[in-house]
Each structure stands twice: as C-alpha cells, then as structure tokens.
Design goal:
It is globular, with a radius of gyration of 27 Å. The termini are far apart. The protein contains five helices and 23 strands. The strands form four sheets. Strands 6-7-8-9-10-11-12-13-14-15-16-19-20-21-22-23 form a 16-stranded antiparallel sheet, with no helix packed on it. Strands 2-5-4 form a three-stranded mixed sheet. Strands 1-3 form a two-stranded antiparallel ribbon. 20% of the residues are buried. A hairpin with a 5-residue loop joins strand 21 and strand 22. Helix content is 13%, strand content 55%. By secondary structure, it is mostly beta strands.
Length: 429
C-alpha cells in the first residue's frame, strides 16, 4: 500500500510539472501584437490581410512559415522575415523595385524574328499590390497594351482586371499580315485558400490584309473569312496548394479552363475550348543537392469545331518553349513531316523536371537573384480534331537548362534535343 501511494505522489508531481512547463511555454510563445516594418509604399492592410496567425494565441511555427510564403507570393517583396519577440509578431519586409521600365526585346520562336519596344510596369500601383502596365513594340511584331490587375479588391479575394491590346503581325506559316484587337474584363474570388475562381468577358477581332497573301497559299487563305469578331465568355478554376508561386518546392496545381466564343459575323463559327492540367511538386531530400525538386505535369487542350473550320489564330504549335522542347514550333525544312504533326488544334502534353539550386537566391537591396539548373523530359500528341489522337503524332524531347530568378517571373534558357538528332534553344518565362 505504501508503494502504491508513493507511485501516486510521484505521478501527480510529474503531471503538475508538465502542466507548469506547458503553461510556461505557452505564456512565453504567444502572439498578442503585430508590428510591420520596412514597407515604405505598401499599405499596412495589404500585408495584414495575408497574415493568418491568430492574435492572443500560442505561436504556431507552421502558420508563421505559411504567412512568409503568402507575403512572398505577392511578388512585391524581395525579402520577408517574421520573428516573435516578447509576444510580438514582427513582420519585416524589403520591397522590390515597384516601377520597372520594360525594354521590350522579344524573340518569337514561331515567327523566327525579334521585336523591340518600350513599356513601363508598376508592380505595386498606389501601394495596393495592383499591377499597372502600358507598353508596346514598334519594330517587328507591332503591338500596344494597357492593363490593370487588382487581385484583391474586397471580400474573399474578389479581384478585378482589365486588358486592352492591339497588334499588327505576320503569320509565319501562311505568310500573311493581320491586325488584332482584344479587350478583357475579368473578376474572381476564393473559396478557402486553395480554391480560386475567375470569370471573364472579352471581345476579340482579327482582320487579315488580303494584299499580303502569298501566291502559294492564296486560294487556301481566301477560302476562309478575312475578318473574325468574337464575344467570349471565360471561366477559370484553380486548386492551388503550392507553397511559393514563383518557384514551388511542394504542392499541387490543378486547373480547369472553359471558354465559349460567339461569332459576331455570320460566316464565323462558334468556338468551344476546354483546358485541363495537373501539376505536382515534390521536395526530395538529398545530401548532395540543395532544394532538389521533382515536378510533373499532364495537360490537355481541346477545341471544337474541327481544325479546318477554326480561324488561323486558334491553331496550336506543339514544338517550342511552351510545349515539347527539342522541336521548333516553326516549319522545319530538314524534317518537313514534322509540320503536319506540330500544327494542331488539340494537344495532350506532359513533362517531368528535376530542378536544383546552382546559385542560391539572395537579396541584393531591392533585387533578389539566383540560378537553378533543370533536367527535363517532355512529350505530346497533337491532333486536328478532339477525338482523333494518334500515336503516329507522338513527339518526345529532353534536355537541360537554367532558370534565372530576379524581379518578376523566372526567365528560362533551355536546350532541348529530340531523337532525330536535332537540338533547339528555347528562351522564355
């Protein structure tokens, strides 16, 4: 009996000790106040609304890390740190350059030519995390654009964006010149942090210049309407659990894009588009490589009606930076049979990438810079009708490259190879 009471007293002491220890830890690691430092232009409420850590509660290090990621994802800070000292949640940020001159130097893999121009972007317009852009190219593909995007106007990420775009360009496949005009209004909202919805209305107009029709394609081009005018209804859904949008280490991105275009000229055909994609990111533990990330994507893009009834600007080209690297998106005289495979209106595409840090990203004042190396394998199938895919049209490419991280989205420089002994260099974002 004495032994029983002795063990009971010891157990009660241990329980009391643990309760006191837990109480001490909680009282020593609470979040009762938020102090924000370093934001000279960004409004305080833009930062505070991204913070999910509850006030007057014990410190949760996982939520603290997520708060850092959410502030990075605004793409207006080059550095974000959060520390808790004396029950105070200190949020320290370094703002990136907000107003960025845009020296437009663009190379099109499809048209095989350069375009030059000027623009200016305000990535944090009025300090409200809005993006305002105006710019254009005046040599090569001539275009001008004006856009305003506010990703969170009020409510649960209720957004608003608008774009006005005009271009005069050449079709590199059928050798004609055309004018294009585009106007977009878009809004959206969140449901939770991972479910993101967008809805849009747009107007799209293209006018082909008949005087530029080449002799080789004159009758083919003349068989289609010279002018296209469409009113478009757009829907976009994203399920997004990525930690960092700019360069994810882990998470899933699922996308569903639906749109319907109503022709406003009697000779036009209505167009239905469906896009589905799934991308996953996995952080691999490795003793020799830092931040080794494996990513996989599978996607499909489908259009109705069939290829022969679609406008030229609805054609998809399976080679190039956007899809199967290792092939040109332009007609290749060395392998002319590729042309009928690469030009399509429907594709199924996938890629696998292995990415690791070469030069660790660091903050240099208001600019972050770093370099990652990439190994990739990608493949795809194109078709001219949504239910007519054939393995005879299967393309596979592979290679290596680099991603350069600075202001804005990463810039990629990839060298792609294909089984036919060709290689192509792809530059893009």
């Amino acid at each position: 009996m004495e032994a029983f009471f002795y063990r009971l007293i010891i157990n009660m002491k241990l329980i009391l000790y643990n309760l006191v220890l837990i109480s001490f830890l909680i009282s020593g690691s609470r979040v009762d106040t938020i102090i924000i430092n370093g934001n000279k232009r960004t409004k305080n409420h833009i930062i505070r609304r991204e913070l999910l850590h509850e006030m007057h509660s014990p410190l949760d290090s996982l939520i603290l890390k997520e708060d850092i990621d959410r502030l990075y994802n605004l793409n207006i800070f080059s550095k974000v740190d959060i520390n808790v000292i004396d029950n105070t949640y200190y949020v320290d940020v370094v703002e990136s350059f907000s107003i960025i001159p845009d020296l437009v130097i663009d190379y099109s893999e499809i048209s095989k030519k350069w375009s030059y121009g000027l623009g200016i972007a305000d990535m944090n317009f009025l300090g409200l995390n809005q993006t305002l852009y105006i710019g254009g190219a005046f040599i090569g593909d001539k275009w001008i654009a004006l856009s305003l995007d506010n990703p969170w106007v009020f409510g649960d990420h209720i957004s608003f964006s608008t774009t006005i775009f005009s271009r005069n360009s050449d079709n590199p496949f059928y050798y004609f010149n055309y004018d294009e005009k585009y106007f977009l209004l878009e809004t959206g909202f969140y449901k939770g942090l991972s479910n993101k919805f967008k809805f849009g209305l747009s107007y799209h107009e293209t006018n082909k210049n008949k005087s530029t029709f080449s002799d080789d394609f004159y009758y083919f081009l003349n068989s289609k309407p010279l002018d296209y005018r469409y009113f478009n209804i757009l829907f976009d859904y994203r399920y997004d659990t990525r930690d960092l949008y700019k360069d994810p280490l882990k998470g899933v991105l699922f996308g569903l894009d639906l749109s319907y275009s109503k022709g406003l000229i009697s000779d036009n055909y209505d167009i239905t588009r469906i896009g589905v994609s799934l991308e996953q990111f996995f952080l691999l533990e490795d003793n020799h490589w830092e931040d080794l990330v494996l990513s996989y994507q599978i996607a499909g893009f489908f259009k109705y009606p069939k290829f022969s009834r679609l406008p030229f600007y609805e054609y998809i080209y399976l080679g190039g930076e956007e899809y199967v690297r290792g092939y040109s998106s332009h007609y290749d005289e060395l392998t002319p049979n590729f042309n009928k495979i690469i030009e399509a209106s429907n594709i199924i595409y996938n890629h696998i990438e292995l990415q690791s840090t070469i030069l660790e990203r660091k903050n240099y004042g208001k600019i972050e810079f770093g370099i990652d190396g990439v190994l990739f394998i990608n493949s795809g199938i194109g078709s001219t009708y949504f239910n007519d895919f054939s393995l005879d049209n299967f393309l596979i490419g592979y290679g290596f490259g680099f991603k350069f991280f600075t202001i804005g989205p990463p810039i990629s420089l990839m060298v792609g190879f294909n089984p036919f002994g060709q290689y192509h260099i792809h530059l893009g974002t």
